[in-house]
């Protein structure tokens, strides 16, 4: 009985070795390598962080410009209501 288990273990080991080191194993290894190459590395993480910081700055600037535009529009509307603003035509 022990001889049968030893022989079955040997054949199982040989089959696993052929699968792992054969074409199937190489295909799996190539897929793992390709997927790890497509993952963003540390250099891209730094670039992404810098872009996010710039985006936050630009968002803040756009927000400030919108507030200034609103203020200017309100100021022009008040001036027009009082009739102090000309028609815009050159004399």
Molecular structure report:
With 91 residues, the chain is mostly helical. It folds into two domains: 1-39; 41-81. 85% of the residues lie in helices and 0% in strands. It is built from three helices and no strands. Helix 1 (2-21) packs across helix 2 (23-38). The termini are far apart.
Task: Indicate the topology.
Blueprint: H1 2-21, H2 23-38, H3 42-82
Helix pairs in contact: 1-2
CA-atom Rg in angstroms: 36 Å
Proportion in helices: over 70%
> N-to-C terminal Cα separation, in Å?
116 Å
Secondary structure: number of strands: 0
The helix-strand sequence is HHH
Which term fits the overall shape? rod-shaped
Query: Biggest β-sheet: count, sense, barrel?
Result: none
Helical run tally: 3
Structural class: mainly alpha
Number of domains: 2
Mean pLDDT: 79
Q: Residue ranges: pLDDT <50 for 5 or more in a row?
A: none
- Which percent band covers the strand fraction? under 5%
Question: Summary?
Answer:
The chain has 91 residues and is mostly helical. Helix content is 85%, strand content 0%.
Keywords:
single chain; 91 residues; mainly alpha; 2 domains; 3 helices; 85% helix; rod-shaped
């Amino acid at each position: 009985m022990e001889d049968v288990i030893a022989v079955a273990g040997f054949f199982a080991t040989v089959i696993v070795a052929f699968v792992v080191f054969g074409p199937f194993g190489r295909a799996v290894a190539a897929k793992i390598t390709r997927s790890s190459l497509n993952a963003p590395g540390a250099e891209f993480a730094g670039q992404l962080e810098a872009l996010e910081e710039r985006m936050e700055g630009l968002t803040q600037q756009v927000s400030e410009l919108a507030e200034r535009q609103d203020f200017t529009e309100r100021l022009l509307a008040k001036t027009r209501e009082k009739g102090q603003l000309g028609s815009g035509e050159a004399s």
